[in-house]
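Record type: monomer structure entry
Structure origin: computed from sequence
Chain ID: A
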Amino acid sequence: MTCPGLPDQQNTQSSTVKPGVAIGILVAVIVLVAFCITGFAAPGFLLRKGPGISLPAPLNSPTTTSSPTSTTESPTSTRVSRPSRPRITITRRPVPPPEKGVQVVADFLSEIAAGDRPSAIALACEAQKRFMDDKIDSLLPLGSRVQITKTGGTAKFVLADVAGVVKGRSARGTVIADRTEDGGFCITTFSIRDAR
């Protein structure tokens, strides 16, 4: 049946792919897949054989006398192992604290043992003098027998570990002396507690 005004529909040439083109596309896809699989399975197969490019040594690494060694694991891959760097350990020798600072701590403890409150407070730093009267009464009362057992610190301060008898009981603690602007030392603070 035909409709007036419309051209007759005739079966024109169908859109099929010729067998030669289909085989060519299939072969190309297979070759591409095989190339990709080989590239991932054996990395480096595309690289040329021969001497490699040597990289410069990092500037911050120590110079070594041995060169990197190369071991072959398989015909298609090479692993390079480098000699391990020696571990460097820095040991700092403790610097003994300044003798002037240690002497100020010893003098402070002597004044406390002698019961001389004004002389003990005079050895305190200016900013700490107003607190020393109360600290002496509560932590290190006059007449306490405390001696330096160990000292440490730097050129700017002395930290002295002390031990002795306070209020009839064994006690231990620390006394800190700081360097003043004129190069001397003064007592900054101290802490005394019962020895255990």
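Annotation 1: Strands lie at 69-74, 77-81, 145-153, 157-166, 169-179, 185-194.
Annotation 2: Residues 19-41 form the longest helix (23 residues).
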